[in-house]
């Protein structure tokens, strides 16, 4: 399942210009971004239903449970893709009022 997830992330990287690099082994994977948007991706990912962790301004860590199935990995990839597609939406790019 780790190889399936990494391949899916690499496919996402080929279509998502924000992703610079996918790295890691097994189910412990990371995405390196070209810009300091990791906190935004994590927040949007959580809104989509996938738990991510920003370990730095340009680094996102994925550490799913070892019981992750291929179907769950595919669902997580879909949710991550939707989250990244929302990055340029007005609610993300505009500063919060207050």
What does the oligomeric state look like here? single chain
User: Which runs of at least 5 residues are low in confidence (pLDDT < 50)?
Assistant: none
- Quote the beta fraction: 15-25%
Strand order of the largest sheet: 1-2-4-3
Could you tell me how far the N terminus lies from the C terminus, measured between alpha carbons in angstroms? 44 Å
Q: Can you summarize the main beta sheet?
A: 4 strands, antiparallel
Q: Helical content, roughly?
A: 40-55%
Summed up, the helix count is: 4
The class by helix and strand makeup works out as alpha+beta
**Element-level helix/strand string:** HEEHEEHH
Average pLDDT, rounded to a whole number, is 91
Bulk shape: globular
Radius of gyration over all CA atoms, rounded: 13 Å
Secondary structure tally: strands: 4
What do these coordinates show?
- The chain is of the alpha+beta class and 98 residues long.
- The chain has helices at residues 2-15, 38-48, 70-85, 90-93, and strands spanning 19-25, 28-33, 53-56, 59-62.
- It has a four-stranded antiparallel beta sheet with strand order 1-2-4-3, covered by helices on one side.
- Strand 3 and strand 4 (59-62) form a beta hairpin.
- The radius of gyration is 13 Å and the shape is globular.
- The relative contact order is 0.20.
- The mean pLDDT is 91.
Task: Give a concise summary.
With about 100 residues, the protein is of the alpha+beta class. The chain is about 45% helix and about 20% strand.
Structural topology:
Elements: H1 2-15, E1 19-25, E2 28-33, H2 38-48, E3 53-56, E4 59-62, H3 70-85, H4 90-93
Helix pairs in contact: 1-3, 2-3
